[in-house]
Amino acid sequence: xxxxxxxxxxxxxxxxxxETETLAAALEHRRTEEISGIAFHQGELCGVPCVxxxxxxxxxxAAVCAQTMILKYAPSLVVNTGAAGGVGPEIRIGDLVxxxxxxxxxxxxxxxxxxxxxxxxxxxxxxxxxxxxxxxxVLAEAAKALYVxxxxxxxxxxxxxxADPEKNREIGRLFSAKATEMEGGSIAQVCYRNGVPCAVLRxxxxxxxxxxxxxxxxxxxxxxxxxxxxxxxxxxxLS
Length: 239
Known about the structure:
The chain is of the alpha/beta class. Helices cover 38% and strands 32% of the residues. The strands form two sheets. Strands 5-11-10-6-12 form a five-stranded mixed β-barrel, surrounded by five helices. A hairpin with a 2-residue loop joins strand 3 and strand 4. The longest helix has 27 residues. The two termini are 16 Å apart.
């Protein structure tokens, strides 16, 4: 029976405290364990067994968190939630992007004749790491009640806060991305290697322009609160 319960567990990862604190506080029967300097909060969210963790910003922090979560807590789905910069004129502040797949825009071995974003994994190199279609569909449907515009597409990850409009356009051109951020691609890669489905949600808090830092600080908390409300609404359908 314990093994069956573990298979239904959903893992939720956010980079910043504002992206996880509401969800962690909402857990019933909450208990916390620290591993590798990361606090993993277990409990039930809307009746569903969940584990919530704040990874810290950046690809390595996110990968450490995701791998630890998978090995220790065996979630059947890992959801990465957070804020992002929008890519393209149709993606506006306050919108939501549900990832169909993730790429890592800062992976560049083109000097060796490889494609930009190409990463070697067991079975061969790939650029896109897929997100679970069913989970993405559930999340997009639930988001319609909370967001004016919900988009599906590529989320581009790199260890860079993209505030340069030209860099933003380049990422859009190379990867057909709809959002840029700093964790989703590494979490998707870890999940891919472990055979664990994943979903990546990005609430748009800036448009990678000169006011990106101001917009991010102003809108990130609001975006995080809406994302937490979305997950609490969708969790029962994801289990």
